[in-house]
Amino acid sequence: MAAEAETSFDLFIGGKEAPGTRGERRSVLDPATNEPFARAAVGVREDAHAALEVAERAFRESNWAADDGARRAKVLIRLAALVESHQDALARLETLNMGKPLRESRGDIGYVVRTLEYFAGLADKVEGETIPVPGARFDYTISEPLGVTVHIAPWNYPLLLAVRSVAPALAAGNSVVLKPASLTPLTAVAFARFAKEAGVPDGIFNVILGSGAEVGEALVDDDRCRSVTFTGSGEVGSRIAELAARRRVPVTLELGGKGPVVVFPDADLERAAKGIGYGIFQNAGQMCWAASRLIVHESIRTELLDRVRSIAESLKLGPGTMEGVEMGPLVSPDQAARVLDYVQDAVASGGRILTGGTRASEPPLASGNFVRPTVLVDVPSSSRAVREEIFGPVLTTATFSELEEALRLANDTTYGLLGTVWTRDLSTAHSFARRLECGMVVVNEAPITYPQAPFAGTKGSGVGFEQGRRAVEAYTRRKNVLVNLGTGKRRA
Ligand code: NAD
What we know:
Blueprint: H1 2-6, E1 8-9, E2 11-13, E3 16-18, E4 25-30, E5 35-41, H2 45-61, H3 69-85, H4 87-98, H5 102-120, E6 130-131, E7 137-145, E8 148-152, H6 158-171, E9 175-179, H7 186-198, E10 205-207, H8 212-220, E11 225-231, H9 234-246, E12 251-254, E13 260-263, H10 269-281, E14 293-297, H11 301-314, H12 333-348, E15 352-355, E16 374-377, H13 384-387, E17 394-400, H14 403-411, E18 418-422, H15 426-435, E19 440-443, E20 455-456, E21 462-463, E22 465-466, E23 476-484
Parallel strand pairs: 1-5, 8-9, 8-11, 9-10, 11-12, 13-14, 13-18, 14-17, 16-17, 18-19
Antiparallel strand pairs: 2-3, 4-5, 6-7, 7-23, 12-21, 15-16, 20-22
This protein binds nicotinamide-adenine-dinucleotide (NAD).
Nicotinamide-adenine-dinucleotide (NAD) is lined by residues 152-156, 161, 179, 181-182, 212-213, 216-217, 220, 231-233, 236, 239-240, 254-257, 288, 389, 391, 417, 457, 461-462.
Protein backbone atom coordinates (compact mmCIF):
# COMPACT_ATOMS: atom_id res chain seq x y z
CA MET A 1 0.00 0.00 0.00
CA ALA A 2 2.95 2.32 0.57
CA ALA A 3 3.74 2.19 -3.13
CA GLU A 4 0.14 3.20 -3.88
CA ALA A 5 0.42 6.30 -1.74
CA GLU A 6 3.53 7.35 -3.63
CA THR A 7 1.91 7.00 -7.04
CA SER A 8 -1.38 8.82 -7.10
CA PHE A 9 -2.88 10.20 -10.26
CA ASP A 10 -5.53 12.89 -10.20
CA LEU A 11 -7.67 14.73 -12.69
CA PHE A 12 -5.83 17.44 -14.59
CA ILE A 13 -8.06 20.45 -15.11
CA GLY A 14 -6.97 24.01 -15.85
CA GLY A 15 -3.30 23.14 -15.39
CA LYS A 16 -3.87 21.75 -11.89
CA GLU A 17 -4.15 18.27 -10.47
CA ALA A 18 -7.13 17.68 -8.23
CA PRO A 19 -8.85 14.59 -6.86
CA GLY A 20 -12.27 15.58 -8.21
CA THR A 21 -15.57 16.54 -6.64
CA ARG A 22 -16.08 13.39 -4.59
CA GLY A 23 -12.43 12.91 -3.74
CA GLU A 24 -12.81 9.22 -4.55
CA ARG A 25 -9.78 7.17 -5.61
CA ARG A 26 -9.48 3.60 -6.76
CA SER A 27 -6.64 1.13 -6.95
CA VAL A 28 -4.95 0.52 -10.27
CA LEU A 29 -3.87 -3.10 -10.71
CA ASP A 30 -0.81 -4.58 -12.39
CA PRO A 31 -2.27 -7.14 -14.87
CA ALA A 32 0.78 -9.39 -14.37
CA THR A 33 -0.11 -9.93 -10.69
CA ASN A 34 -3.50 -8.28 -10.14
CA GLU A 35 -1.85 -6.41 -7.23
CA PRO A 36 -2.48 -2.67 -6.80
CA PHE A 37 0.48 -0.44 -7.62
CA ALA A 38 -1.07 3.03 -7.92
CA ARG A 39 -4.22 4.97 -7.17
CA ALA A 40 -6.28 7.02 -9.57
CA ALA A 41 -8.94 9.63 -8.92
CA VAL A 42 -12.47 8.79 -10.01
CA GLY A 43 -14.07 11.78 -11.70
CA VAL A 44 -17.83 12.25 -11.87
CA ARG A 45 -20.30 14.20 -14.03
CA GLU A 46 -19.59 17.49 -12.20
CA ASP A 47 -15.88 17.10 -12.94
CA ALA A 48 -16.60 16.55 -16.64
CA HIS A 49 -18.61 19.77 -16.65
CA ALA A 50 -15.83 21.61 -14.83
CA ALA A 51 -13.29 20.42 -17.41
CA LEU A 52 -15.49 21.57 -20.31
CA GLU A 53 -16.02 24.95 -18.63
CA VAL A 54 -12.30 25.50 -18.05
CA ALA A 55 -11.46 24.32 -21.58
CA GLU A 56 -14.00 26.64 -23.15
CA ARG A 57 -12.79 29.62 -21.14
CA ALA A 58 -9.17 28.86 -22.07
CA PHE A 59 -10.15 28.63 -25.73
CA ARG A 60 -11.73 32.09 -25.58
CA GLU A 61 -9.27 33.80 -23.28
CA SER A 62 -5.83 32.31 -23.93
CA ASN A 63 -3.79 33.06 -27.04
CA TRP A 64 -3.58 29.40 -28.05
CA ALA A 65 -6.02 29.62 -30.97
CA ALA A 66 -5.22 33.19 -31.98
CA ASP A 67 -1.45 32.81 -31.93
CA ASP A 68 0.70 32.19 -34.94
CA GLY A 69 0.65 28.41 -35.57
CA ALA A 70 4.45 28.44 -35.41
CA ARG A 71 4.18 29.16 -31.67
CA ARG A 72 1.96 26.15 -31.16
CA ALA A 73 4.46 24.14 -33.19
CA LYS A 74 7.26 25.14 -30.83
CA VAL A 75 5.24 24.09 -27.79
CA LEU A 76 4.39 20.72 -29.37
CA ILE A 77 8.04 20.17 -30.28
CA ARG A 78 9.04 20.94 -26.69
CA LEU A 79 6.38 18.49 -25.51
CA ALA A 80 7.74 15.82 -27.88
CA ALA A 81 11.24 16.38 -26.46
CA LEU A 82 9.99 16.10 -22.87
CA VAL A 83 8.14 12.87 -23.64
CA GLU A 84 11.22 11.53 -25.40
CA SER A 85 13.49 12.34 -22.50
CA HIS A 86 11.10 10.47 -20.17
CA GLN A 87 10.50 7.61 -22.58
CA ASP A 88 11.67 4.89 -20.21
CA ALA A 89 9.62 6.13 -17.25
CA LEU A 90 6.48 6.54 -19.35
CA ALA A 91 7.00 3.13 -20.94
CA ARG A 92 7.35 1.54 -17.52
CA LEU A 93 4.16 3.18 -16.31
CA GLU A 94 2.31 2.00 -19.42
CA THR A 95 3.60 -1.54 -18.96
CA LEU A 96 2.72 -1.68 -15.27
CA ASN A 97 -0.77 -0.41 -16.03
CA MET A 98 -1.55 -2.28 -19.23
CA GLY A 99 0.72 -5.32 -19.15
CA LYS A 100 2.47 -5.18 -22.54
CA PRO A 101 6.23 -5.89 -22.71
CA LEU A 102 8.49 -2.90 -22.03
CA ARG A 103 9.92 -3.15 -25.54
CA GLU A 104 6.42 -2.54 -26.96
CA SER A 105 5.68 0.29 -24.53
CA ARG A 106 8.94 1.99 -25.50
CA GLY A 107 7.82 1.70 -29.12
CA ASP A 108 4.43 3.23 -28.21
CA ILE A 109 6.06 6.20 -26.49
CA GLY A 110 8.41 6.64 -29.45
CA TYR A 111 5.32 6.75 -31.64
CA VAL A 112 3.82 9.43 -29.37
CA VAL A 113 6.97 11.53 -29.85
CA ARG A 114 6.88 11.14 -33.62
CA THR A 115 3.14 11.99 -33.70
CA LEU A 116 3.71 15.20 -31.76
CA GLU A 117 6.57 16.16 -34.05
CA TYR A 118 4.55 15.40 -37.17
CA PHE A 119 1.54 17.48 -36.13
CA ALA A 120 3.79 20.25 -34.78
CA GLY A 121 5.02 20.52 -38.37
CA LEU A 122 1.46 21.09 -39.56
CA ALA A 123 0.48 23.68 -36.92
CA ASP A 124 1.47 26.62 -39.17
CA LYS A 125 0.03 25.01 -42.30
CA VAL A 126 -3.65 25.16 -41.42
CA GLU A 127 -4.54 27.09 -44.51
CA GLY A 128 -7.53 28.47 -46.35
CA GLU A 129 -7.87 28.94 -50.07
CA THR A 130 -8.92 31.59 -52.56
CA ILE A 131 -11.79 30.72 -54.85
CA PRO A 132 -12.49 32.35 -58.20
CA VAL A 133 -16.01 33.86 -58.33
CA PRO A 134 -17.58 36.08 -60.99
CA GLY A 135 -17.09 39.84 -61.13
CA ALA A 136 -15.17 42.14 -58.87
CA ARG A 137 -15.36 39.90 -55.91
CA PHE A 138 -12.81 38.14 -53.79
CA ASP A 139 -13.73 34.86 -52.14
CA TYR A 140 -11.58 33.07 -49.62
CA THR A 141 -11.84 30.50 -46.86
CA ILE A 142 -10.46 30.50 -43.34
CA SER A 143 -9.80 27.30 -41.38
CA GLU A 144 -10.76 27.94 -37.80
CA PRO A 145 -10.37 25.69 -34.75
CA LEU A 146 -13.62 24.20 -33.48
CA GLY A 147 -13.33 25.11 -29.79
CA VAL A 148 -13.39 22.33 -27.19
CA THR A 149 -12.69 18.92 -28.67
CA VAL A 150 -13.39 15.76 -26.65
CA HIS A 151 -11.21 12.66 -27.01
CA ILE A 152 -12.18 9.29 -25.53
CA ALA A 153 -9.45 6.66 -25.60
CA PRO A 154 -9.30 2.86 -25.06
CA TRP A 155 -6.93 0.83 -22.89
CA ASN A 156 -4.89 -1.13 -25.45
CA TYR A 157 -2.45 1.64 -26.49
CA PRO A 158 -3.39 4.13 -23.77
CA LEU A 159 -1.15 7.13 -24.50
CA LEU A 160 -0.48 6.45 -28.18
CA LEU A 161 -4.15 6.38 -29.18
CA ALA A 162 -4.93 9.42 -27.04
CA VAL A 163 -2.16 11.52 -28.58
CA ARG A 164 -3.02 10.33 -32.10
CA SER A 165 -6.05 12.65 -32.02
CA VAL A 166 -5.02 15.14 -29.33
CA ALA A 167 -1.92 16.23 -31.30
CA PRO A 168 -3.76 17.42 -34.46
CA ALA A 169 -6.49 19.03 -32.33
CA LEU A 170 -3.91 21.03 -30.39
CA ALA A 171 -1.95 21.85 -33.55
CA ALA A 172 -5.10 23.37 -35.06
CA GLY A 173 -5.62 25.60 -32.00
CA ASN A 174 -8.41 23.78 -30.14
CA SER A 175 -8.64 23.18 -26.44
CA VAL A 176 -8.87 19.54 -25.47
CA VAL A 177 -10.55 17.35 -22.88
CA LEU A 178 -9.17 13.81 -22.86
CA LYS A 179 -10.81 10.86 -21.13
CA PRO A 180 -8.55 7.80 -20.99
CA ALA A 181 -10.02 4.34 -20.35
CA SER A 182 -10.87 3.68 -16.71
CA LEU A 183 -8.46 0.72 -16.63
CA THR A 184 -5.46 2.68 -17.95
CA PRO A 185 -5.57 6.31 -16.82
CA LEU A 186 -1.97 6.85 -15.70
CA THR A 187 0.11 7.92 -18.70
CA ALA A 188 -2.52 10.49 -19.76
CA VAL A 189 -2.02 12.33 -16.46
CA ALA A 190 1.77 12.06 -16.72
CA PHE A 191 1.52 13.45 -20.25
CA ALA A 192 -0.61 16.40 -19.02
CA ARG A 193 2.17 17.34 -16.59
CA PHE A 194 4.62 17.45 -19.50
CA ALA A 195 2.16 19.46 -21.60
CA LYS A 196 2.07 22.13 -18.89
CA GLU A 197 5.86 22.12 -18.60
CA ALA A 198 6.17 22.46 -22.38
CA GLY A 199 4.05 25.62 -22.33
CA VAL A 200 0.54 24.47 -23.26
CA PRO A 201 -1.56 27.17 -21.55
CA ASP A 202 -3.59 26.12 -18.51
CA GLY A 203 -7.02 24.88 -19.55
CA ILE A 204 -6.01 24.02 -23.12
CA PHE A 205 -5.23 20.41 -22.28
CA ASN A 206 -7.32 18.67 -19.61
CA VAL A 207 -7.57 15.06 -18.51
CA ILE A 208 -10.61 13.69 -16.82
CA LEU A 209 -10.70 10.21 -15.29
CA GLY A 210 -13.77 8.17 -14.51
CA SER A 211 -16.26 5.76 -15.98
CA GLY A 212 -17.27 5.97 -19.62
CA ALA A 213 -20.96 5.74 -18.86
CA GLU A 214 -20.86 8.70 -16.47
CA VAL A 215 -17.94 10.96 -17.38
CA GLY A 216 -17.68 9.99 -21.06
CA GLU A 217 -21.34 10.62 -21.76
CA ALA A 218 -21.30 13.86 -19.75
CA LEU A 219 -18.48 15.14 -21.97
CA VAL A 220 -20.19 14.23 -25.24
CA ASP A 221 -23.68 15.30 -24.26
CA ASP A 222 -22.83 18.93 -23.58
CA ASP A 223 -23.09 22.04 -25.74
CA ARG A 224 -19.52 23.07 -24.94
CA CYS A 225 -18.19 19.96 -26.71
CA ARG A 226 -17.61 20.84 -30.38
CA SER A 227 -16.27 17.49 -31.67
CA VAL A 228 -15.74 13.95 -30.42
CA THR A 229 -12.99 11.54 -31.34
CA PHE A 230 -13.70 8.11 -29.96
CA THR A 231 -11.52 5.01 -30.14
CA GLY A 232 -13.09 1.91 -28.69
CA SER A 233 -15.79 -0.67 -29.17
CA GLY A 234 -18.54 -0.50 -31.79
CA GLU A 235 -21.26 -0.60 -29.18
CA VAL A 236 -20.04 2.48 -27.33
CA GLY A 237 -19.14 4.14 -30.64
CA SER A 238 -22.79 3.92 -31.74
CA ARG A 239 -23.97 5.43 -28.47
CA ILE A 240 -21.51 8.32 -28.83
CA ALA A 241 -22.53 8.91 -32.45
CA GLU A 242 -26.18 9.08 -31.32
CA LEU A 243 -25.44 11.62 -28.60
CA ALA A 244 -23.28 13.72 -30.94
CA ALA A 245 -25.87 13.60 -33.73
CA ARG A 246 -28.51 15.07 -31.43
CA ARG A 247 -26.25 18.07 -30.98
CA ARG A 248 -24.96 18.04 -34.58
CA VAL A 249 -21.36 17.65 -33.50
CA PRO A 250 -18.85 15.91 -35.79
CA VAL A 251 -17.51 12.53 -34.68
CA THR A 252 -14.55 10.40 -35.64
CA LEU A 253 -15.01 6.77 -34.66
CA GLU A 254 -12.11 4.31 -34.61
CA LEU A 255 -13.67 0.96 -33.73
CA GLY A 256 -12.88 -2.72 -33.78
CA GLY A 257 -11.61 -5.09 -36.44
CA LYS A 258 -11.38 -8.72 -37.54
CA GLY A 259 -8.43 -8.44 -39.91
CA PRO A 260 -7.93 -11.02 -42.66
CA VAL A 261 -4.38 -12.13 -43.47
CA VAL A 262 -4.33 -13.85 -46.85
CA VAL A 263 -1.31 -15.94 -47.81
CA PHE A 264 -0.78 -16.99 -51.44
CA PRO A 265 1.39 -19.98 -52.39
CA ASP A 266 4.17 -17.77 -53.83
CA ALA A 267 4.68 -15.88 -50.53
CA ASP A 268 7.94 -15.91 -48.59
CA LEU A 269 6.65 -18.27 -45.92
CA GLU A 270 9.31 -17.55 -43.33
CA ARG A 271 8.58 -13.82 -43.41
CA ALA A 272 4.85 -14.44 -43.61
CA ALA A 273 4.89 -16.69 -40.54
CA LYS A 274 6.82 -14.08 -38.55
CA GLY A 275 4.43 -11.35 -39.72
CA ILE A 276 1.41 -13.47 -38.80
CA GLY A 277 2.84 -14.14 -35.32
CA TYR A 278 3.51 -10.45 -34.81
CA GLY A 279 0.10 -9.46 -36.17
CA ILE A 280 -1.82 -11.55 -33.64
CA PHE A 281 0.46 -12.00 -30.61
CA GLN A 282 1.89 -8.49 -30.31
CA ASN A 283 0.19 -6.65 -27.41
CA ALA A 284 -1.27 -10.10 -26.57
CA GLY A 285 -3.59 -9.65 -29.54
CA GLN A 286 -5.36 -6.69 -27.91
CA MET A 287 -5.32 -4.68 -31.11
CA CYS A 288 -8.13 -3.27 -33.20
CA TRP A 289 -6.10 -4.04 -36.30
CA ALA A 290 -5.01 -7.54 -35.21
CA ALA A 291 -4.51 -9.86 -38.18
CA SER A 292 -6.78 -12.40 -36.51
CA ARG A 293 -8.18 -14.45 -39.42
CA LEU A 294 -5.58 -16.42 -41.35
CA ILE A 295 -6.77 -17.35 -44.86
CA VAL A 296 -4.13 -19.59 -46.40
CA HIS A 297 -3.84 -21.36 -49.74
CA GLU A 298 -4.45 -25.09 -49.32
CA SER A 299 -1.10 -26.01 -50.89
CA ILE A 300 0.94 -24.29 -48.13
CA ARG A 301 -1.42 -24.72 -45.18
CA THR A 302 0.53 -27.43 -43.36
CA GLU A 303 3.92 -25.77 -43.77
CA LEU A 304 2.68 -22.32 -42.76
CA LEU A 305 0.71 -23.57 -39.77
CA ASP A 306 3.76 -25.53 -38.56
CA ARG A 307 5.79 -22.33 -38.66
CA VAL A 308 3.14 -20.20 -36.93
CA ARG A 309 2.62 -22.85 -34.28
CA SER A 310 6.32 -22.99 -33.53
CA ILE A 311 6.42 -19.18 -33.18
CA ALA A 312 3.41 -19.29 -30.82
CA GLU A 313 5.01 -21.98 -28.69
CA SER A 314 8.37 -20.25 -28.49
CA LEU A 315 7.09 -16.85 -27.28
CA LYS A 316 8.36 -15.99 -23.81
CA LEU A 317 5.41 -15.06 -21.60
CA GLY A 318 5.87 -13.01 -18.46
CA PRO A 319 5.36 -9.70 -16.72
CA GLY A 320 5.94 -6.93 -19.25
CA THR A 321 8.46 -5.30 -16.92
CA MET A 322 10.78 -8.30 -17.20
CA GLU A 323 13.41 -7.85 -19.90
CA GLY A 324 13.20 -10.43 -22.68
CA VAL A 325 9.47 -11.05 -22.27
CA GLU A 326 7.71 -11.25 -25.64
CA MET A 327 4.08 -11.44 -24.56
CA GLY A 328 2.53 -10.00 -21.42
CA PRO A 329 -0.77 -10.63 -19.66
CA LEU A 330 -4.17 -9.46 -20.89
CA VAL A 331 -5.31 -6.20 -19.38
CA SER A 332 -7.77 -7.63 -16.83
CA PRO A 333 -9.18 -10.91 -15.47
CA ASP A 334 -12.42 -10.14 -17.35
CA GLN A 335 -10.56 -9.79 -20.63
CA ALA A 336 -8.76 -13.11 -20.08
CA ALA A 337 -12.07 -14.85 -19.26
CA ARG A 338 -13.70 -13.31 -22.35
CA VAL A 339 -10.91 -14.55 -24.63
CA LEU A 340 -11.03 -18.08 -23.22
CA ASP A 341 -14.79 -18.10 -23.60
CA TYR A 342 -14.33 -17.53 -27.35
CA VAL A 343 -11.89 -20.45 -27.49
CA GLN A 344 -14.35 -22.75 -25.71
CA ASP A 345 -17.11 -21.64 -28.02
CA ALA A 346 -14.95 -22.37 -31.08
CA VAL A 347 -14.22 -25.88 -29.80
CA ALA A 348 -17.90 -26.47 -28.97
CA SER A 349 -18.80 -25.52 -32.53
CA GLY A 350 -16.39 -28.09 -34.00
CA GLY A 351 -13.03 -26.25 -34.07
CA ARG A 352 -9.69 -27.63 -32.85
CA ILE A 353 -6.93 -26.03 -30.80
CA LEU A 354 -3.64 -26.40 -32.67
CA THR A 355 -1.77 -24.72 -29.83
CA GLY A 356 -2.57 -22.68 -26.71
CA GLY A 357 -6.17 -22.19 -25.69
CA THR A 358 -5.48 -22.12 -21.95
CA ARG A 359 -4.30 -19.84 -19.21
CA ALA A 360 -0.60 -19.90 -18.40
CA SER A 361 -0.78 -21.16 -14.85
CA GLU A 362 2.82 -21.95 -13.92
CA PRO A 363 4.46 -19.66 -11.31
CA PRO A 364 4.93 -16.69 -11.46
CA LEU A 365 2.20 -16.34 -14.09
CA ALA A 366 -0.64 -17.93 -12.15
CA SER A 367 -1.83 -14.74 -10.45
CA GLY A 368 -1.79 -12.67 -13.65
CA ASN A 369 -4.09 -12.60 -16.68
CA PHE A 370 -1.90 -14.72 -18.96
CA VAL A 371 -3.44 -16.59 -21.89
CA ARG A 372 -1.20 -18.71 -24.12
CA PRO A 373 -0.78 -17.75 -27.77
CA THR A 374 -3.53 -19.70 -29.48
CA VAL A 375 -4.08 -21.03 -32.99
CA LEU A 376 -7.47 -22.51 -33.86
CA VAL A 377 -8.19 -24.66 -36.93
CA ASP A 378 -11.35 -26.06 -38.54
CA VAL A 379 -13.55 -23.47 -36.83
CA PRO A 380 -16.84 -23.06 -38.75
CA SER A 381 -17.10 -19.66 -40.40
CA SER A 382 -20.37 -19.05 -38.57
CA SER A 383 -18.69 -19.42 -35.15
CA ARG A 384 -18.42 -16.39 -32.84
CA ALA A 385 -14.64 -16.82 -32.79
CA VAL A 386 -14.54 -16.15 -36.54
CA ARG A 387 -17.21 -13.46 -36.67
CA GLU A 388 -16.55 -11.36 -33.56
CA GLU A 389 -13.55 -9.41 -32.38
CA ILE A 390 -11.82 -11.52 -29.70
CA PHE A 391 -9.22 -8.91 -28.71
CA GLY A 392 -6.75 -11.51 -27.49
CA PRO A 393 -3.92 -13.76 -28.79
CA VAL A 394 -6.19 -16.04 -30.82
CA LEU A 395 -5.76 -16.78 -34.53
CA THR A 396 -8.42 -18.60 -36.54
CA THR A 397 -7.61 -20.25 -39.86
CA ALA A 398 -9.43 -20.94 -43.10
CA THR A 399 -8.21 -22.41 -46.40
CA PHE A 400 -8.78 -21.36 -50.02
CA SER A 401 -7.98 -22.76 -53.45
CA GLU A 402 -8.88 -19.82 -55.77
CA LEU A 403 -8.25 -16.09 -55.49
CA GLU A 404 -11.96 -15.27 -55.62
CA GLU A 405 -12.60 -17.60 -52.72
CA ALA A 406 -9.86 -15.91 -50.69
CA LEU A 407 -11.41 -12.53 -51.41
CA ARG A 408 -14.87 -13.72 -50.45
CA LEU A 409 -13.58 -15.13 -47.14
CA ALA A 410 -11.56 -11.98 -46.42
CA ASN A 411 -14.55 -9.69 -46.99
CA ASP A 412 -17.01 -11.93 -45.15
CA THR A 413 -17.05 -9.77 -42.01
CA THR A 414 -18.92 -6.80 -40.64
CA TYR A 415 -15.56 -5.13 -39.92
CA GLY A 416 -13.21 -3.33 -42.32
CA LEU A 417 -10.08 -2.05 -40.59
CA LEU A 418 -6.83 -3.59 -41.84
CA GLY A 419 -6.23 -6.48 -44.24
CA THR A 420 -2.90 -8.15 -44.99
CA VAL A 421 -1.80 -9.91 -48.18
CA TRP A 422 1.32 -12.03 -48.60
CA THR A 423 2.35 -12.64 -52.21
CA ARG A 424 5.30 -11.93 -54.50
CA ASP A 425 2.97 -11.29 -57.43
CA LEU A 426 2.43 -7.55 -57.94
CA SER A 427 -0.76 -7.94 -59.86
CA THR A 428 -2.32 -10.18 -57.17
CA ALA A 429 -1.16 -7.77 -54.47
CA HIS A 430 -2.63 -4.66 -56.10
CA SER A 431 -5.87 -6.20 -57.30
CA PHE A 432 -6.41 -7.72 -53.86
CA ALA A 433 -5.63 -4.40 -52.17
CA ARG A 434 -8.27 -2.70 -54.30
CA ARG A 435 -10.94 -5.28 -53.67
CA LEU A 436 -10.44 -5.78 -49.93
CA GLU A 437 -13.19 -4.00 -47.99
CA CYS A 438 -10.79 -2.42 -45.51
CA GLY A 439 -9.66 1.08 -44.62
CA MET A 440 -6.02 -0.07 -44.71
CA VAL A 441 -4.13 -2.81 -46.55
CA VAL A 442 -0.61 -4.03 -45.83
CA VAL A 443 1.28 -6.10 -48.39
CA ASN A 444 4.09 -8.41 -47.27
CA GLU A 445 4.38 -6.96 -43.79
CA ALA A 446 2.75 -7.27 -40.39
CA PRO A 447 0.30 -4.47 -39.51
CA ILE A 448 2.25 -1.23 -39.41
CA THR A 449 1.40 2.47 -39.56
CA TYR A 450 3.05 5.89 -39.35
CA PRO A 451 1.70 9.25 -38.13
CA GLN A 452 1.92 10.61 -41.69
CA ALA A 453 -0.27 7.85 -43.19
CA PRO A 454 -4.06 7.77 -42.71
CA PHE A 455 -5.44 5.27 -40.20
CA ALA A 456 -8.99 4.44 -41.19
CA GLY A 457 -11.71 1.85 -40.93
CA THR A 458 -14.68 1.16 -43.14
CA LYS A 459 -17.87 -0.90 -42.60
CA GLY A 460 -18.26 -1.53 -38.84
CA SER A 461 -14.72 -0.36 -38.09
CA GLY A 462 -15.34 3.33 -38.05
CA VAL A 463 -16.19 6.70 -39.50
CA GLY A 464 -13.55 9.22 -40.58
CA PHE A 465 -9.83 8.73 -40.20
CA GLU A 466 -6.89 9.78 -38.10
CA GLN A 467 -3.25 10.55 -38.90
CA GLY A 468 -1.87 12.07 -42.05
CA ARG A 469 -1.84 15.66 -43.18
CA ARG A 470 -5.60 15.88 -43.62
CA ALA A 471 -6.34 14.72 -40.07
CA VAL A 472 -6.00 18.34 -38.93
CA GLU A 473 -9.08 19.19 -41.02
CA ALA A 474 -11.24 17.16 -38.63
CA TYR A 475 -10.40 19.72 -35.95
CA THR A 476 -11.10 22.84 -38.01
CA ARG A 477 -14.17 24.34 -39.59
CA ARG A 478 -14.15 26.16 -42.88
CA LYS A 479 -15.49 29.68 -43.05
CA ASN A 480 -16.15 31.27 -46.43
CA VAL A 481 -15.67 35.03 -46.85
CA LEU A 482 -16.88 36.88 -49.93
CA VAL A 483 -15.78 40.48 -50.47
CA ASN A 484 -17.25 42.74 -53.12
CA LEU A 485 -14.33 44.76 -54.46
CA GLY A 486 -16.39 46.88 -56.83
CA THR A 487 -17.67 50.39 -56.53
CA GLY A 488 -21.31 49.47 -56.87
CA LYS A 489 -21.32 48.65 -60.56
CA ARG A 490 -22.48 45.07 -60.91
CA ARG A 491 -20.80 42.86 -63.48
CA ALA A 492 -21.79 39.44 -64.67
P1 NAD B 1 -14.73 0.67 -24.82
O1 NAD B 1 -15.65 1.04 -25.93
O2 NAD B 1 -15.25 -0.16 -23.72
O3 NAD B 1 -14.15 1.98 -24.13
C1 NAD B 1 -13.45 2.96 -24.85
C2 NAD B 1 -13.54 4.26 -24.10
O4 NAD B 1 -14.90 4.69 -24.07
C3 NAD B 1 -13.10 4.19 -22.64
O5 NAD B 1 -12.43 5.39 -22.30
C4 NAD B 1 -14.41 4.07 -21.90
O6 NAD B 1 -14.33 4.53 -20.57
C5 NAD B 1 -15.30 4.98 -22.75
N1 NAD B 1 -16.73 4.72 -22.63
C6 NAD B 1 -17.36 3.56 -22.31
N2 NAD B 1 -18.71 3.74 -22.32
C7 NAD B 1 -18.93 5.03 -22.69
C8 NAD B 1 -20.10 5.81 -22.90
N3 NAD B 1 -21.33 5.30 -22.74
N4 NAD B 1 -19.95 7.10 -23.29
C9 NAD B 1 -18.72 7.63 -23.47
N5 NAD B 1 -17.57 6.95 -23.27
C10 NAD B 1 -17.67 5.65 -22.89
O7 NAD B 1 -13.46 0.02 -25.53
P2 NAD B 1 -12.17 -0.62 -24.83
O8 NAD B 1 -12.60 -1.92 -24.24
O9 NAD B 1 -11.49 0.39 -23.96
O10 NAD B 1 -11.22 -0.84 -26.10
C11 NAD B 1 -11.31 -1.95 -26.89
C12 NAD B 1 -12.05 -1.63 -28.18
O11 NAD B 1 -11.43 -0.51 -28.82
C13 NAD B 1 -11.95 -2.76 -29.17
O12 NAD B 1 -13.20 -2.97 -29.80
C14 NAD B 1 -10.93 -2.25 -30.18
O13 NAD B 1 -11.02 -2.83 -31.44
C15 NAD B 1 -11.21 -0.79 -30.20
N6 NAD B 1 -10.04 -0.05 -30.71
C16 NAD B 1 -10.09 0.55 -31.96
C17 NAD B 1 -8.97 1.21 -32.47
C18 NAD B 1 -8.97 1.87 -33.84
O14 NAD B 1 -8.12 2.72 -34.09
N7 NAD B 1 -9.88 1.52 -34.75
C19 NAD B 1 -7.81 1.27 -31.71
C20 NAD B 1 -7.80 0.64 -30.47
C21 NAD B 1 -8.92 0.00 -29.97
